[in-house]
Write a structure and sequence with these properties.
alpha/beta
Length: 368
Amino acid sequence: MSLENPIHQRLMSACLRLARRHEGLTGTNPSVGTLLVQFHNGEPVVVGRGVTALGGRPHAESVAIAEAGIRAHGATAFVSLEPCSHHGVTPPCAQALIDAGVARVFTAWIDPDSRVDGKGHAMLKAAGIDVQIGLHGHQAERDLAGYLTRKTLNRPHVHLKLAVSRDGKIGIKEDGQIPITGAVSRAQVHRMRSLSDAILVGAGTLRADDPELTCRLPGLEKRSPKRFVLAGNQPLPMNRKLFRDLTHAPTFVVAGENFDEDQRSELSRAGVNLFSAEFHNGTIALPELLDDMAQTGISTLFVEGGSAIASAFLNAGLVDRLSIFMGPAEIGGNGVAAPITEKTVPDDFVLERTMLFSEDRYSGFNRR
């Protein structure tokens, strides 16, 4: 089968790597990669490359076709996601491939958008183009997790990160944030932030830790995600770093209907956005909050809150990806127990990878 051809597999791998180049930078559209390839005596020659442009347009297929020009005729296209079939701001990408004279199309995953969802593939087949679906589909599903979750579940893909001591603690009682992991692990966390649309903490973390919630890796500062604080009806200290400098990223306070009106006005004057929250049994209704976030185009949410926030997301079954960084030291009896450790991860999560970052051990899990 064509899907088992090692050359085709290698080309789709390259296509997926190309798509990651603009991950998190394409607005509400997914970052898609496209390669147009001519085969000469069985050897592939890439004649056009495209990745979804910053902000979401033009789409990858159009970029690759423009680069290939007349060489697109008779070419094989490798596309990380099914070409769109609907008229929007731009014409359908499936039609663009047809008009360019492409002979064959490999796609990694079907677009679940109700306006597409197989219709792009159907257009291509109706035009006599050979279509192969699912090449490196597992990897494409991982790469597109945010977009796919938003389209199928109407909420962002939630990535929970925890730094845990060797004895299963995430901090010291009444002592705020303490260093558990080293510089290499912290750099990895900043990289994760750079690939997320939004980052979220609770009011307790804001008070105790005074976080900035930005990406501070050299060259990636502009990729800081939108910042959300779950306040509910609790007053917030206005002297925190998050509120002192709003130039890094849009900042939101998730407030309930009984949130202090004077502080609501103060936050608005400072440039902080107020995000309304619904309550269920006295706590913020997380499913409704995530639904509201998705409606604003947020596809990926990075949760860095403390034990209460982490437990709330885990207990609600709203965590899709789990990253646990375990430091080498023990905290002891005065420590705050982690809501979850490597040994207590539920069975519906599967361990994807483990890595060592200096003295720290990283374990990454995905929900089955």
